[in-house]
Amino acid sequence: VPVVTVLSTSYSINVGNSITLQCTVSATPSATSVTWQRFTNNVATNIDMSSGRYSGSSVGSPSLVISNTVISDEGFYICKATNSVGSGQSQQTFLDVIGSIPTVTVPQSTYTVNRGSSVTLQCTYTSNPAPTSVFWERTVANQVTIISTAISKYDGSTTQSPSLIINTADESDEANYVCKVTNSVGTGISSSTFLDVLGNIPVVTAPTSAYTVNVGDSVTMTCTVTANPQHTTVYWQYISGGSSTNVNMGGRFSGSSVSSPSLTLSNAQLSDQGTYVCYATNSVGTGQSTQVVLAVTGSVPSVSLTQTSFTGNYGDTITLGCTVSANPGVTSVYWQKVSGSVTSTVDMSNSRYTGSSVSTPSLTITNLNSNDGGNYICLAANSVGTGQSVQGPLTVVG
């Protein structure tokens, strides 16, 4: 029978490489066939030479060549040869296939990032044989999604740079992540790491809920903003009759900016009275303050005569008394005379008339004559409008 010899009792090879298990055959008469068997857990399997990974195992070339070794190739091998007398076999030789699925590690169990910022989820691995791919998975509410780095939001996740870079993080990125690395043996998986995305809509505060300002004066309605991520805009709205309109900056309004969110109103008018709300917006959304009520005080002047009627002697001097109460302050005082259906303004350029001013609203008439008789009205104006007294008749005697 043939004498069959293996040249080594053991071999070792990395997964994916090729190995030749050496075998020699000495036979008279010549061998007619050569076969190999592999033993795994004492179970013999004939090597199927029709598989593309095997070559050799022939009379002319009895050694067994295994290409692209895999873990399942590990085991004890026997070389057999047959001639017309019988069959001979070698001693066992052991093939040790070295390699395993990658060992994958994420160094942190939790990462935090502000909304709008970028974050790198670190991943390292050791792999023999070398890895063929790296990918990441995220889990939200038991829903697993494979991260596609084809999306511009993501970078990394390659065999050279296995860490995952998330650009411009938002609330949808908050999830559990695992790093996976694949080689020819299989896929290794890291432990889970959680990404906590920090930030919220701005917190907008109006510390004072009500303001009162006189017509014509200025008032600042205070607004403070705390925001992470940083707010990018601030604006105010005016509410009247259930309808909201944006307050336009410029003219009598100023402020309402990122650096100065409070709203300043100059030269307040009665039409400015109402409810105001401060808003601030960041990349997450828009926050708003509680309502601020602005009361604008002031009215037309209250004007009164000191007497219901006046009587003076021809040629004498008389003062038609007038008192004025006004908020905001009076800007002008003048008098009118009513004669029948004709109303005329008293001409203070006439030297017979004095007073009729903000400081002295009463009207003094010197050298009375019959033409001075008639009904007189005292009028006072402020920024709100004009108030007037009732008519006071003047009778000239003589």
Blueprint of the fold:
Elements: E1 3-6, E2 10-14, E3 19-21, E4 23-26, E5 33-40, E6 43-46, E7 54-56, E8 64-66, E9 75-82, E10 87-89, E11 93-98, E12 103-105, E13 110-114, E14 119-121, E15 124-126, E16 133-140, E17 143-146, E18 154-156, E19 164-166, E20 175-182, E21 187-189, E22 193-198, E23 200-205, E24 210-214, E25 219-221, E26 224-228, E27 233-240, E28 243-246, E29 253-255, E30 263-265, E31 274-281, E32 286-288, E33 292-297, E34 302-305, E35 310-313, E36 318-320, E37 322-325, E38 332-339, E39 342-345, E40 353-355, E41 363-365, E42 374-381, E43 386-388, E44 392-397
Parallel strand pairs: 2-11, 13-22, 24-33, 35-44
Antiparallel strand pairs: 1-4, 3-8, 5-6, 5-9, 7-8, 9-10, 9-11, 12-15, 14-19, 16-17, 16-20, 18-19, 20-21, 20-22, 23-26, 25-30, 27-28, 27-31, 29-30, 31-32, 31-33, 34-37, 36-41, 38-39, 38-42, 40-41, 42-43, 42-44
Describe this entry's structure for a reader.
Keywords: Disulfide bond, Signal. Residues 2-96, 102-196, 202-295, 301-395 form the Ig-like domain. InterPro entries: Cell_Adh-Cytoskel_Orgn, Ig-like_dom, Ig-like_dom_sf, Ig-like_fold, Ig_sub, Ig_sub2, Ig_V-set. The chain has 398 residues and is mainly beta. The protein folds into four domains: 3-98, Sandwich (Immunoglobulin-like); 103-198, Immunoglobulin-like, CATH 2.60.40; 201-297, Sandwich (Immunoglobulin-like), CATH 2.60.40.10; 302-397, Immunoglobulins (Immunoglobulin-like, Sandwich), CATH 2.60.40. 0% of the residues lie in helices and 51% in strands. It contains no helices and 44 strands. Strands 2, 5, 6, 9, 10 and 11 form a six-stranded mixed β-sheet that branches. It is rod-shaped and about 175 Å long.
